[in-house]
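Backbone geometry:
***
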Amino acid sequence: MALAAGAVVEVALVAVVVFLATFDARRLIDLGAWVGVEDPWQQSAMPNTRATTEELCSAALCGQAVQSDTLTTYRFADRDDAMAAARHFAGEARPAGSSSGSSPGV
């Protein structure tokens, strides 16, 4: 009985490790949530936001896009696609949250 319980725990641990190794939360992000918001903070952060996926994305470029008066945001399937697009649009640009290794003006 203890051997069977140990096997169940082992299988569960392997399943959790596989899930964590393959799960990518970026695929769950819905940029459309920024379109038509009524929250004052969201409106000030991205005023006049509109969905622009069909206009800005091709099947090869990105999966979703929204544009506002202040910002255009893209959602990519993986990090490599995001980095390729960033370099195409802005040379040495980097995605939000990544570090450049140095601080400007230092």
User: Anything to note?
Assistant: The longest helix spans residues 2-22. Residues 26-90 form one domain. The beta strands are 50-51, 64-67, 72-75.
